[in-house]
Amino acid sequence: MTVWADGTSSVPQGEDGKLITCFLPKEKALAVAERVHQRKNMISCDFTGGRGSGLVKSVCYGHSVEVDILSIIVRAEEADGLFEFIYHEAGIGRSQGGFIFQSALSRSTPFALPELPEEP
Amino acid sequence: MSEREITILTDVALITCIVQRGLADKITKAASEAGAQGATVHFARGVGVRERLGVLGLAVEVEKEVIQILVSTDQADHVFEKMYLAGKLDTPGMGIMFITPLEKAATYIPHGVMEKLTHGEASATGSGGGSQE
Questions:
Q1: Contact call for A48 and B42, based on CB within 8 A
Q2: With helix as H, strand as E and coil as C, how does chain B read?
Q3: What's the gap in Å between the CA of A41 and the closest CA on chain B?
Q4: A119: DSSP letter
Q5: Mutate which of A16, A20, A55, A71 to disrupt the B interface (most B C-beta within 10 Å)?
Q6: Which residues contact B124 (CB under 8 A, 6 or more apart)?
Q7: B106/A90 Cα distance (integer angstroms)
Q8: What are residue A35's phi and psi, to 5 degrees?
């Protein structure tokens, strides 16, 4: 990273963002990501696979299940709306629906695609 | 509870622990015994201290397991300590762990638990927990 004499940086200063992370049942993240993609002002969205274990005996003790981990960076002012949107879209409020949480980012990079002309 | 309600949990922290592959189960077991209700683990690849430890960097596995555990802030230090000891993170190269404070979280809360929370809040006002939107 280059920092110039006037204190500016070659790395573009992003806006204060929020990171929303979800632990979802396997193969649910893609559908949610597609729905989120249709909303504007999302900065970044990606997901990966993992394993989860409910350690409460009544749910499943000692067994791991495959889960999707969905991470979305969004502008601060959009975060609460998107949090609620994902909660309902992903069915997190149902039993075994997963978990969603939000944390603040001290810095993030902007991720904006150029305006592309419509293909003929 | 209607379909469109969210119970927002506050005072929640995320414990993230990055260790060598194969150690996660032992650490999540310790976390559960310390009161954590669940854990999520995924694989990753690490670089850094490995190159400086062991013979040709072979002593430290490049394959990592990343453990993520959500706990209440009250429990966070206790669970963190138990995980640290179980993973022997005081040994150089064993791994790293950290706590991230969360603004809010949400999940399915069984009706019985929700009632207990509501009654608890009614009898003793204040002290963290959840809020409904």
A1: yes
A2: CCCCCCEEECCEEEEEEEEECCCHHHHHHHHHHCCCCEEEEEEEECCCHHHHCCHHHCCCCCEEEEEEEEEEHHHHHHHHHHHHHHCCCCCCCCEEEEEEECCEEEECCCHHHHHHHHHHHHHCCCCCCEEEC
A3: 20
A4: P
A5: A55
A6: none
A7: 12
A8: -65, -40
State the residue for tokens 């729905």.
Answer: A35
Tokens 């990343």 correspond to B66
B99 neighbourhood in chain A, CB within 8 Å = none
Compute the distance between CA of residue B82 and CA of residue B96 in angstroms, rounded to an integer: 14
Q: In this predicted model, what pLDDT tens digit does every residue of B43-85 receive, in sequence order?
A: 998 877 666 666 665 666 678 999 999 999 999 999 999 999 9
The residue whose two tokens read 């597609």 is A34
**Interchain proximity A50–B108, CB inside 8 Å:** no
Residue in the structure block whose two tokens are 């969905």 = A70
d(Cα A28, Cα A66) in Å, to the nearest integer? 11
pTM of this prediction exceeds 0.90 = no
Inter-residue contact A97 to B10 (CB < 8 Å): no
pLDDT of residue A56 exceeding 50: no
Test B133 with A84 for CB contact under 8 angstroms: yes
What are the structure tokens assigned to A55, written together? 């350690």
Task: Report the residue of B100, B102, B103, B109 to disrupt the A interface, i.e. the one with the largest count of A CBs within 10 Å.
Answer: B103
Contact B130, B117 (CB under 8 A): yes
Other Cβ atoms closer than 10 A to B115:
11
The overall average pLDDT reported for chain B is 83
